[in-house]
């Protein structure tokens, strides 16, 4: 039977491919455990010792970007009427003084009629006053009659000024009357709310809206987070917070806590914490998800390693620690924390200060896999 197995159909011996394979590489996984590696040249994998760093107790909360309501301005049309032209739309950026809409209003017609009446009355009283002054100088009328004429002129002049002011409030040029009011942007910013459309109602009335459009200056925005009741002791107004956005991984933006809500959500026991954040270039957009890290007042000493010394594998973090046998390394599970300046990563657990680790865990892992 052995002879049959060693020969093929033509009587020749069958090749043993396993015997002809090239020899294995110097780095292999130890058969005794999957967490131990052996390399023939350990000098290729230098060791480093963890560093110590001072860390403050921190709290991380999730939230979203919201506009700063103190920088929101409604676009108002004092004249009630119908929008005949809308030159902007929701989400547009507008400049201060830019024409945003035109409103056709019967209020303008009434105001201009009042202005014309005031002009006529003022012309009449001025003519009477001029005549009475001439007659008084010639002794033809009493001083009391001149005073009556002066009072009439003063009253007409006040009515004319009021009519002119009414036209200015409505946005109408008295020298070029029109039944259409042109409405301009009061500030530069982004239109974040739109309560009217072309051919829609505009203006202010008791039953209407407070503004047809709302413009927000987004150079400063809010990050509003939910902080649990147990963590509120570590959050204080005026302290800084690190903001991280899902849209920009790895980017950290600084903010300042401006308010801590006085009322907690009774269902999840959280308070709204508001963070003021500068937004140059409008990089932060309304509605973006964000996480905020608040630094507490208590500090502790923690260990830190360069990022290259940590191997992330299967949702876990590992480091390689040398064993007593030369060339052997054991893979140890660690729990990493935040990333520090210079590429250092905080090790929260799994490593002692007196332990050394391989400086580049990925190179060792790759060598073992060859």
Give the C-level CATH assignment of the largest domain. Answer: Mainly Beta
The value of Rg in angstroms is: 40 Å
Q: Report low-confidence residues grouped into runs of 5 or more.
A: 1-33, 205-209
Largest sheet descriptor: 6 strands, antiparallel, barrel
How many alpha or pi helices? 5
- Looking at the structure, what is the overall shape? rod-shaped
Query: How much of the sequence is in beta strands?
Result: 35-45%
Name given to the CATH architecture of the largest domain: Beta Barrel
What is the average of the pLDDT values? 83
Report the count of strand segments: 22
Structural class assignment: alpha+beta
Output the CATH topology of the largest domain.
Answer: conserved putative lor/sdh protein from methanococcus maripaludis s2 fold
Structurally, the number of domains stands at 4
- Give the helix proportion (percent range): 10-25%
Major beta sheet, strand line-up? 4-13-16-15-14-17
Q: Tell me the distance between the termini.
A: 38 Å
What is the string of helix and strand elements?
Answer: HHEEEEEEEEHHEEEEEEEEEEEEEEH
Please sum up the structure shown.
This protein has 370 residues and is of the alpha+beta class.
Describe the protein in words.
By secondary structure, the protein is α+β, with helices and mostly antiparallel strands. The protein folds into 4 domains: 28-56 and 301-369, conserved putative lor/sdh protein from methanococcus maripaludis s2 fold (Beta Barrel), CATH 2.40.420.20; 59-70 and 217-297, Elongation Factor Tu (Ef-tu), domain 3 (Beta Barrel); 71-104 and 180-216, OB fold (Dihydrolipoamide Acetyltransferase, E2P) (Beta Barrel), CATH 2.40.50.100; 106-178, Helix Hairpins, CATH 1.10.287. It has 5 helices and 22 strands. The protein has helices at residues 2-6, 17-20, 106-137, 143-170, 361-369, and strands at 28-29, 36-38, 47-48, 51-67, 72-75, 81-86, 93-94, 99-104, 180-184, 189-194, 201-202, 213-216, 220-228, 240-245, 248-265, 270-278, 289-306, 311-313, 316-322, 328-339, 344-349, 357-358. The two termini are 38 Å apart.
């Amino acid at each position: 039977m052995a002879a049959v197995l060693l020969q093929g159909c033509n009587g020749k011996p069958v090749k043993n491919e396993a015997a002809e394979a090239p020899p294995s590489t110097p780095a292999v996984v130890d058969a005794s455990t999957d967490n131990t590696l052996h390399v023939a040249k350990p000098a290729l994998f230098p060791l480093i010792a963890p560093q110590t760093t001072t860390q403050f107790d921190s709290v991380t909360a999730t939230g979203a970007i919201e506009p700063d309501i103190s920088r929101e301005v409604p676009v108002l049309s004092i004249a009630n009427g119908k929008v005949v032209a809308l030159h902007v739309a929701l989400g547009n950026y507008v400049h201060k003084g830019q024409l945003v809409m035109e409103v056709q209003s019967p209020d303008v017609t009434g105001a201009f009629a009042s202005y014309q009446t005031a002009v006529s009355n003022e012309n009449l009283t001025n003519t009477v006053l001029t005549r009475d002054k001439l007659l008084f100088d010639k002794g033809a009328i009493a001083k009391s009659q001149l005073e009556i004429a002066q009072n009439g002129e003063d009253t007409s002049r006040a009515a004319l000024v009021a009519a002119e002011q009414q036209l200015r409030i409505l946005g109408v040029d008295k020298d070029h009357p029109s039944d259409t009011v042109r409405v301009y942007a009061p500030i530069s910013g982004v239109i974040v709310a739109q309560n009217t459309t072309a051919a829609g109602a505009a203006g202010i009335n008791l039953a209407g809206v407070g503004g047809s459009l709302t413009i927000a200056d987004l150079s400063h925005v809010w990050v509003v987070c939910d902080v649990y009741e147990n963590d509120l002791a570590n959050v204080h107004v005026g302290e800084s917070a690190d903001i991280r956005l899902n849209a920009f991984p790895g980017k950290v933006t600084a903010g300042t806590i401006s308010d801590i809500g006085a009322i907690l959500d009774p269902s999840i026991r959280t308070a709204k914490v508001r963070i003021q954040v500068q937004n140059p270039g409008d990089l932060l957009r309304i509605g973006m998800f964000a996480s905020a890290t608040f630094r507490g007042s208590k500090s502790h000493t923690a260990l830190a390693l360069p990022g290259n010394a940590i191997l992330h594998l299967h949702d876990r973090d590992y480091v390689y620690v040398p064993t007593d046998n030369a060339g052997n390394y054991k893979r140890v599970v660690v729990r990493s924390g935040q990333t520090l300046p210079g590429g250092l990563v905080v090790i929260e657990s799994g490593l002692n200060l007196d332990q050394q680790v391989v400086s580049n865990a990925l190179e060792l892992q790759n060598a073992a896999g060859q």
